[in-house]
Write a sequence for this structure.
C-alpha cells in the first residue's frame, strides 16, 4: 500500500512524464521551458520516491514484496509497462514519424521538443536517435541513483553503478555529440566511441572503414582505438577481471538492465532447457557475425587488392586454419573445463563456421552461401540489432527479465564469455558448508544461473554467461559467495560430495 508521501512523489513524476508525452500532440512554443520542466518534475518525483522507499528505511537489501507486486511478477501493470516499452521501441526503429521526426524537413512532436538540447550539444536539430539517447541516458542516471540507494553500503555495487552512469553519460552520450558539433564535416561513424567489434558488427565493412579513413585524424584515431580494443585491451581486461569489465562496468545495455531493469531481474528463467537454448542461440549469433565480418573483409580485398599483401583465398585459408587450431586447442588442452554439451556446441558451431567460410572461397565476390552479403547483414541488423536488442531486449523486461539481450543475442557477451570460461582469472568462489539453501542467489541472478546448486556443492562458479554483477553475493545472508580473481590452476573445481565443502565420511 502506497503511503501519502509515496503517492505525492509518484504524482510529481507522473506529471513530468505526461507533460513530455503530450508533446506528441501539442506543439509547445517554449520548448526549453517545457523540456526542462518535464525532466525536472520526473527527477524530483523519482528522487523523493526513492528516498521514501530506500533512504529512510532500515539498512539492508530491500526486495520485500517483489514476488507479490503485479509490476514485477507479470501482472496487469507489468503487461501494460511491457507493451508501452515495446510500442516505443517499434516507433523508434521503424515508425519515427509517429514521434514527429521528419527526414525531409522540420520535425514536430516529441522529437522537436528536444531541439534545444540537440542544438546545444551537436549543433543540429534533434532526430529520433537523439531523443532515444537522451531518454536512455536519463533513465540510467535516475534509476542509477535508486540502485545506489537500494544497495547502500555495498562498495562493489556503488563502484560499478557509478561506473556505468559515468560511461553512459560522458562517453556514450555527451562526448560523441560534442565531437559531432566540433567536427561537422566528419562522418558520424568516425566519432562513435562504441567502435569495437563484435559490438559493432559492421566495424570491418567497406563503408565503415571508408568513413573512418575519410574522417581525418579523428577517424584514424577511432580506427586505431577500435583495433587496440579488439586485439589488446579487451583480451587483457577479460583475462584479469572476466567479462564484467564490460558487461557490468561499461556497457550501456548492461547499465539500463542493472538500473531500470533491476526490479525485473528475478524473472529470468533458470530452467536447464532455457540454458541450453541460450548457449546455442548466443553462439549462433556470434558465428553469424564472424561470417559476415569475413565476407566484408573479402569484399574489401576484392575491391582494393593493391592495399593488401594477401589474396582473398589466402585470407580465407588463414581464417579457417586459425579456427581449426583454436577448436583443437580448446577441445583437448582445456577439455577438463568443458562439459559434454559444451564440446558438442563447440564442434558443431565451429564446423558450421569452417564450412561456410570454405564455401565462401568459391562463391561470388559479395556473397555468403551464394546470397548477397549486404542483404544478409541488413537482415541481421533488422532481426538482431533492432528487434532483438531493442524491442525484445528492453521492451520485454517485465516479461523475461532484464538481461534477455545479454543472455541470448549479444555477440560481444558471447565472445567475452568464451574467454571468461576458458582463460580468465575471474571466478565466484563458494563456501558450501555455510549455505542454508535459501535460494536468494538463484532468484536474483539476472543471467538465469542456478547459483544455489553451485554453492551447495562448494563449486566455483565459472560460467560464460556470468556478468559479474555480484548481486548473488550481495543478497546472500551467510557470505557464501565471493567474487575473486586468482590463479588459473584450480579455478574449475568439481567436488565429489553432494553438499558442503567440509563434509567428512566417518566409519
Amino acid at each position: 500500500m502506497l503511503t501519502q508521501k509515496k503517492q505525492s512523489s509518484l504524482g510529481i513524476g507522473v506529471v513530468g512524464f505526461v507533460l513530455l508525452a503530450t508533446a506528441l500532440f501539442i506543439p509547445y512554443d517554449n520548448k526549453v521551458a517545457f523540456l526542462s520542466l518535464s525532466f525536472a518534475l520526473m527527477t524530483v518525483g523519482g528522487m523523493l520516491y526513492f528516498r521514501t522507499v530506500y533512504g529512510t528505511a532500515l539498512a539492508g537489501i530491500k526486495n520485500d514484496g517483489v514476488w507479490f507486486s503485479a509490476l514485477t511478477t507479470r501482472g496487469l501493470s507489468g503487461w501494460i509497462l511491457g507493451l508501452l516499452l515495446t510500442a516505443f521501441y517499434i516507433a523508434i526503429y521503424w515508425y519515427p514519424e509517429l514521434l514527429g521526426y521528419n527526414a525531409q524537413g522540420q520535425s514536430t512532436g516529441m522529437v522537436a521538443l528536444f531541439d534545444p538540447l540537440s542544438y546545444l550539444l551537436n549543433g543540429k536539430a534533434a532526430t529520433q536517435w537523439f531523443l532515444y539517447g537522451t531518454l536512455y541516458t536519463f533513465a540510467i542516471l535516475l534509476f542509477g541513483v535508486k540502485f545506489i540507494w537500494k544497495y547502500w553500503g555495498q562498495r562493489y555495487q556503488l563502484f560499478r553503478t557509478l561506473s556505468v552512469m559515468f560511461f553512459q553519460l560522458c562517453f556514450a552520450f555527451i562526448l560523441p555529440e560534442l565531437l559531432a558539433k566540433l567536427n561537422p564535416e566528419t562522418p558520424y561513424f568516425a566519432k562513435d566511441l562504441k567502435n569495437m567489434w563484435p559490438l559493432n558488427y559492421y566495424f570491418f565493412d567497406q563503408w565503415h572503414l571508408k568513413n573512418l579513413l575519410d574522417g581525418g585524424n579523428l577517424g584514424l584515431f577511432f580506427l586505431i582505438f577500435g583495433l587496440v580494443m579488439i586485439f589488446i585491451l579487451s583480451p587483457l581486461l577479460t583475462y584479469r577481471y572476466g567479462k564484467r569489465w564490460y558487461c557490468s562496468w561499461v556497457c550501456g545495455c548492461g547499465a539500463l538492465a542493472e538500473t531500470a531493469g533491476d526490479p525485473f531481474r528475478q524473472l529470468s528463467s533458470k530452467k536447464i532447457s532455457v540454458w541450453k537454448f541460450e548457449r546455442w542461440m548466443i553462439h549462433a549469433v556470434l558465428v553469424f557475425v564472424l561470417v559476415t565480418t569475413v565476407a566484408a573483409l573479402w569484399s574489401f580485398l576484392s575491391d582494393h587488392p593493391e592495399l593488401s599483401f594477401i589474396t582473398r583465398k589466402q585470407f580465407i585459408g588463414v581464417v579457417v586454419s586459425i579456427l581449426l587450431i583454436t577448436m583443437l586447442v580448446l577441445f583437448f588442452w582445456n577439455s577438463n573445463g568443458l562439459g559434454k554439451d559444451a564440446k558438442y556446441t563447440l564442434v558443431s558451431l565451429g564446423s558450421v563456421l569452417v564450412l561456410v567460410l570454405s564455401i565462401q572461397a568459391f562463391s561470388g565476390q559479395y556473397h555468403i552461401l551464394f546470397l548477397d552479403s549486404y542483404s544478409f547483414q541488413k537482415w541481421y541488423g533488422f532481426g538482431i540489432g533492432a528487434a532483438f536488442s531493442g524491442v525484445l531486449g528492453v521492451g520485454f523486461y517485465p516479461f523475461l527479465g532484464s538481461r534477455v539481450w545479454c543472455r541470448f543475442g549479444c555477440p560481444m557477451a558471447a565472445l567475452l564469455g568464451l574467454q571468461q570460461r576458458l582463460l580468465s582469472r575471474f571466478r565466484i568462489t563458494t563456501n558450501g558448508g555455510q549455505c542454508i539453501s535459501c535460494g536468494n542467489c538463484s532468484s536474483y541472478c539476472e543471467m538465469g544461473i542456478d547459483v544455489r546448486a553451485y554453492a551447495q556443492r562448494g563449486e566455483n562458479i565459472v560460467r560464460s554467461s556470468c556478468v559479474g554483477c555480484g548481486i548473488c553475493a550481495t543478497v546472500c545472508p551467510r557470505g557464501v559467495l565471493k567474487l575473486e580473481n586468482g590463479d588459473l590452476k584450480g579455478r574449475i573445481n568439481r567436488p565429489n560430495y553432494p553438499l558442503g565443502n567440509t563434509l567428512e565420511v566417518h566409519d
In short: The CA atoms of residues 320 and 355 lie 9 Å apart. The longest strand covers residues 426-430. DSSP finds 21 helices and four strands in the chain. The radius of gyration is 24 Å.
